[in-house]
Write a structure and sequence with these properties.
about 450 residues; 19 helices; binds pyridoxal-5'-phosphate
């Protein structure tokens, strides 16, 4: 199709908003391994998970068979406030790079939370409300998830308690204020409001906290209060399911214009945006209808797919959560201070982990300064100031487009632009000042993290 026929932005109409989420597990030959009890190492059933998670969300978590899960009308109504999200043809970036490749990105930053996380937050808040709960607890690292959940909870009139990693709480006071504006209660973690928090504080006084530690506190807070459940913004299969609204819209828009992506790229923290973007395309690949190259991009400082092991591991530092089989660096792995807070988790979605192990997707790790260099190039020609997390995908999209420049191939490249970076200006400042560093963990660092993986029959490293 000639350039004239493809607009800069492809918008779908409200009526084209997906009516179903797509559950890729239904089409996977090798299903992701079940969650296990950390105590007995037996697969967890619906009843086991009820004290922690909302009922309907547990059903989604355990559902390996239904390909289509209807999106309730109340959630679609909320989606309509900021969706369908635009699919953008990066004409300006293509021109700047001088590449014959065609580059598209799906932009998820057009809402106050500034990222794709709202797609799952609103679904999780809806099911909590429907179950008659009073509120939910959660953790947040960089703050995007906490913000999204605050927005979703205020919409449905639910109490929202956020445990925010202490360093972020201090470094990102404006994130905190957005959450408070939406009525959330924000506690810096570790805190003395929970037993696990007190224990961590006693052991490591003055610690800046971590995501794994905030998760432990949020889970404890949920189980100790009547009418509360814990919700999570990534990693779980239910979250990946909700995020398939990204891929479904993208596929509808591309099909409409007769565009077929050759390469699909996304950044991978816990794997929800990438999983959501690629799921419908992966479904076609799994059913033998089409082929695509999928690339997961992670930071070199937290390389769970490229340097981790595919084993059962703890999801949190306090070891209160179920065990998940995933590519992991170990729950005690401490990534060096990296500016892409949303990509600092030690593990990876078990769906993506299985697809990666089956060689259906590839993974690349990229260094921080190269990521910000790509972010800057992108911001200058495409006008959007990207989140550091999203910029990992931009880096690899640019690399692929430059390869096409060398070979003359006219590949179609699609990537997920997960959010905006307005709350990450300290990171941009470090880049602009030339003080940003690229710390890559040594093999010893990796081995140290992996030493904390639980050992039991069938879980050998
Ligand atoms: C949280 C976040 C990510 C990473 O999370 P996934 O679950 O891997 O998608 C990426 N980009 C942005 C902007 C985020 O907020």
């Amino acid at each position: 199709m000639s350039k004239e026929n493809i607009p800069y932005k492809i918008y779908l109409s409200e009526n084209e908003l997906p009516a179903y989420w797509y559950n890729v597990r239904a089409d996977m030959k090798n299903k992701p391994a079940p969650l296990l009890s950390p105590a007995t190492h037996e697969p967890l059933k619906f009843e086991d998970l009820r004290p922690v998670f909302c009922d309907e969300l547990i059903k989604q978590e355990l559902n390996d068979t239904d390909p289509l899960i209807p999106i309730p009308d109340e959630i679609r109504e909320f989606y309509k406030m900021y969706r369908p999200a635009p699919l953008v043809r990066a004409y300006c970036l293509e021109k700047k790079l001088g590449t014959p490749a065609k580059i598209y990105y799906k932009f998820e930053g057009n809402n106050t939370s500034g990222s794709h996380k709202l797609n799952s937050a609103i679904a999780q808040a809806y099911y909590a409300k429907k179950q008659g709960l009073k509120g939910v607890t959660t953790e947040t690292g960089a703050g995007q998830w906490g913000t999204a959940l605050s927005m979703a909870c205020s919409y449905f009139g639910l109490d929202c308690q956020v445990y925010m990693v202490k360093v972020s709480y201090e470094q990102k006071p404006f994130r905190r204020e957005v959450m408070r504006t939406y009525g959330a209660n924000v506690t810096p973690s570790p805190s003395n409001t929970t037993e696990v928090g007190k224990k961590i504080l006693a052991e490591f006084p003055g610690t800046g906290g971590s995501l794994g530690c905030a998760i432990s506190e949020a889970v404890e807070a949920a189980t100790k209060q009547e009418g509360y459940r814990y919700v999570l913004g990534s990693v779980l299969s239910q979250v990946l399911l909700h995020q398939t609204v990204i891929g479904l819209e993208t596929m509808t828009a591309m099909d409409k214009y007769g565009i077929k992506p050759d390469v699909i790229i996304g950044c991978a923290g816990g794997g929800s945006n990438l999983g959501g973007l690629i799921s419908p395309f992966m479904g076609r690949k799994l059913r033998g209808e089409a082929d695509y190259q999928f690339i997961a991009v992670e930071p070199a400082s937290c390389p769970s797919l490229t340097r981790g092991k595919f084993v059962y591991d703890f999801c949190d530092t306090g070891h209160v959560c179920p065990l998940a089989k995933m590519y992991t660096l170990g729950s005690e792995f401490m990534p060096s201070p990296n500016h892409a807070g949303g990509l600092r988790y030690h593990g990876m979605s078990s769906i993506l982990s299985q697809l990666y192990d089956d060689k259906l997707i590839e993974a690349r790790s990229v260094e921080q300064t190269a990521v910000f260099d790509a972010a800057q190039q992108f911001a200058r020609v495409e006008g959007i100031l990207p989140a550091p997390e999203s910029s990992h995908a931009i880096r690899v999209a640019i690399d692929e487009a430059l390869k096409c420049k060398e070979t003359g191939e006219e590949k179609t490249i699609l990537f997920g632009l997960t959010g905006t970076g307005y709350f990450d200006m300290y990171a941009y400042k470090a880049f602009n000042d030339g003080t940003m560093s690229d710390y890559i963990p040594t093999d010893e660092d990796i081995a140290k993290g992996l030493a904390g993986v639980p050992r039991f029959p069938g879980n050998m490293i």
